[in-house]
Specification:
The protein is 62% helix and 0% strand. It is mainly alpha-helical. It has a domain of 117 residues. Helix 1 runs antiparallel to helix 2 and helix 1 crosses helix 3. It starts with a helix and ends with a helix. 17% of the residues are buried. Keywords: Membrane, Transmembrane, Transmembrane helix.
Length: 174
């Protein structure tokens, strides 16, 4: 009995610390999944230990009611996520416990809770690799010619001087 109370208190503190910064249903379920795995491991060593009962005792603890009140507004979303996401498969046998606890806690609507599951890290990395990279455009130097009488005469004069110098070089007697 003493060991069970110690386990409950230990996981209440751990869950309260995590729920102070967790802002998504997915984050809540991931943390809850790690606690359930730890409970199952510890119950293997103790006789007459039921992880479902311990989980209910943990979730019903008064220290967690403030944190869980944000999630009690999304019971259906939580259950749907547990049943559809393979990452939360360990929680599937505890959905009844989770649902009954969340239904007992008063819902306090929170706008900071994210309902959607963020994509996995490998999905983000894949999208970054396949994203079209825009080519770097090198600046093109463009000469803007002001075509007026003075510039035309200057170009003709320069061209004639260059042609005169070339003809002198070619036809000069050697």
């Amino acid at each position: 009995m003493l060991a069970r109370n110690y386990m409950v208190e230990k996981f209440v503190v751990e869950l309260a610390d995590s729920l102070s910064y967790i802002r998504s249903i997915d984050g809540f379920l991931v943390k809850l999944g790690t606690i359930v795995v730890s409970l199952e491991d510890e119950c293997r060593e103790i006789s007459n230990c039921d992880p479902a009962v311990l989980l209910e005792n943990i979730l019903m603890h008064e220290k967690l009611s403030r944190y869980l009140s944000r999630f009690s507004c999304y019971i259906d979303d939580i259950v749907d996520s547990i049943n559809s996401d393979p990452r939360h498969k360990v929680l599937r046998k505890y959905t009844d416990v989770l649902r009954s606890v969340l239904e007992r806690i008063k819902c306090v609507e929170s706008t900071e809770i994210e309902k959607t599951t963020p994509p996995a890290l490998w999905v983000k990395e894949y999208k970054e690799q396949t994203r079209q990279v825009k080519p770097i455009h090198r600046p093109v130097l463009r000469f803007k010619l002001n075509i007026n009488t003075e510039s035309i005469l200057t170009m003709i004069l320069l061209a004639s001087i260059i042609l005169y110098i070339i003809s002198l070089i070619i036809y000069l007697p050697k």
